[in-house]
Amino acid sequence: MLDLPEGLEVTDYTLILPSVSVGNVGQLSVDLLISTLGLRRIGRIFDTSFIPLVGADPYDENSEDICTSIDLYASDEKKLVALQIRSPLVNKPSNFFYEILNFVTDHKISKVIILTSSYGHEKRDEQIRTVPFRYLANEKVTAEYDKKFEELSWVALEPKLLDDFSGQTVLQIHGGGFAKTLFELLQKNNLFCIILLKFCSEGDNIPDAIELTNYFNQWLQLIPTDEKNTCKLQFPPSWKFLFGNLPPRELY
Question: What confidence category does residue 240 fall into, taking pLDDT thresholds of 50, 70 and 90?
Answer without folding.
Answer: confident
